[in-house]
Amino acid sequence: MAIYFIGGSPCSGKSTVAQILADSYGLRYFKVDDHLDRYLQTAAAQGKPACQRATRMTPDEIWMRDPQLQCEEELRIYEEIFDLILADLAALGSQQDIITEGAAYLPMLMQRQRIAVDRYLSITPTKDFQVTHYRQREWVPYVLEGCSDKETAFRNWMERDALFALAVQQQCMDAGYVSIVNDGGMSVEDMVEMVSGVLGLTAL
Q1: How far, CA to CA in Å, does 16 sit from each of 7, 100, 138, 194?
Q2: Mean per-residue pLDDT, 88-97
Q3: Helix-helix angle 49-56:67-91, to 10 degrees
Q4: Exposure check for the chain: N or C terminus, fewer CB within 10 A?
């Protein structure tokens, strides 16, 4: 069984690309974000400190912090839940190749697992592309519900994700993985073709 990993940061096109590749190449699609709350709760119950903090904080405590601190905490959270994700992937069995995506697939974690360079890449957005697309998403106000200053909270969120994208790009450079930066100028079709080429996917 082969597992193909797409990491990166939110609002970059990871999910769209992964779903198209799953449909095109007969892969099983595992989306980390579908299980993120369970991972957080499980890791918190295991005593993982960053996950414990994340599950106890109020909206203002989360989003009104300095974006750099938010980014650093997000990186720690993904480290703490990584083994839970790997366990779920292992439980899927070996009957079908898998494509999986999520911001939790940090390049440094992939390197520690010795994931080959043709089994992982990251996709991150430029900040302008990220902010534009986040403002179009209907669920954003629900994430910020309870914040005393939603516009400041949103700006902090966007800055956190921009910093996260830069961290992922640097980790890719350090580990020798491919890093794709999406500025909105590439069509979905071209993005899918690029990703399938890096991962060495062939037609059914």
Answers
A1: 13, 12, 17, 14
A2: 90
A3: 110
A4: C
Name the residue among 88, 94, 109, 79 with its Cα closest to residue 38. Answer: 88
**Closest alpha carbon to 164 in 77, 34, 70, 66:** 70
- Segment 185-190 shows an average pLDDT of 93
Residue 11: per-residue pLDDT: 84
Average pLDDT of the residues in 31-55? 97
Measure the CA–CA gap between 82 and 109, rounded to whole angstroms: 8
Q: Give the pLDDT score at 122.
A: 97
The sign one gets for the Cα dihedral 144, 149, 150, 152 is negative
What would the mean pLDDT of 94-100 be, rounded to a whole number?
A: 90
Eight-state DSSP code of residue 180: E
Which of 3, 5, 7 is closest to 180 using CA atoms? 7
